[in-house]
Amino acid sequence: MHTPTTPGARLLSAVPYLRKGCRVVDVGTDHAYLPIHLVREGLVAEALACDVNQGPITAARANVAAAGLADRIGTRLTDGLHGVEDFSPDSVLIFGMGGELIVKILSEAPWIRNESIGLVLQPMSRAAVLRRWLLENGFSIEGETLTYEDKYYQTLAARYTGRVDSYSDVELAVGRLNIETRPPLFEGFVRHEIAVLEAVLRGKAKSAQADTSFEEYMKRSLESLL
Q1: What count of other Cβ atoms lies within 10 Å of the Cβ of residue 1?
Q2: Mind listing the pLDDT tens digit for each residue in 17-64?
Q3: Nearest-angstrom CA–CA distance, 71 and 64
Q4: Distance (Å, rounded) from C-alpha 165 to C-alpha 25?
């Protein structure tokens, strides 16, 4: 059982994608629990904890000070990645937001189109939207991790390579690498996604005019992975 100040599996899914001694920006940091853990455990050298709201930044600043890490973890009140490039991060973490909001944040920060900057992203929804944007904008998806904390979470590691790729609809939804490697949580995750589609289909069944072809196609595609 982790304490409130120690991140659980969902946040710690970032760790395998971080190079020891790197500098990280944590967007939407909330209480800065993840940057504090990363720096305290020697997993990264320095961190910048960012949030768009003053409340989380005030809490983050207090927690960083209490941990005695104010010399290695900065805090910044900012919208997304605006004004963060001066920190020169090696890695950018964006957890706890919807896929469309992550896309907006990334698209407003052209400086991340840099092979030396790794992205570690955890969309709370619309993972397919995020994957499609990455692939269409020259980012290669280098890693995928599934975690479960009350629900399933997908963590993506990506980096700018300039290469444009495309995934099938099912690969966009659950990840090509997850399909290839079939990690321990994969089957449960796929079954959950099928259940979500079945709920949508039940809702649409109440309307004679509703088009259910995409949901039915996705359901069949996901079932074929089991």
Answers
A1: 4
A2: 999 999 999 999 989 999 999 999 999 999 999 999 999 999 999 999
A3: 9
A4: 26
Q: 76 pairs with which residues across the strands?
A: 50
- CA angle 155-156-158, nearest 5°? 155
Cα separation, 32 vs 56, whole angstroms: 8
d(CA 11, CA 204): 35
Backbone angles phi and psi of 15, in degrees to 5: -55, -45
Distance CA 203, CA 168 (A): 25
Contact 11, 124 (CB under 8 A): no
CB 134 within 8 A of CB 158: yes
Q: Each residue of 121-171: pLDDT tens digit?
A: 999 999 999 999 999 999 999 999 999 999 999 999 999 999 999 999 999
Rounded CA separation 132/120 (Å): 16
First to last CA, the chain: 31
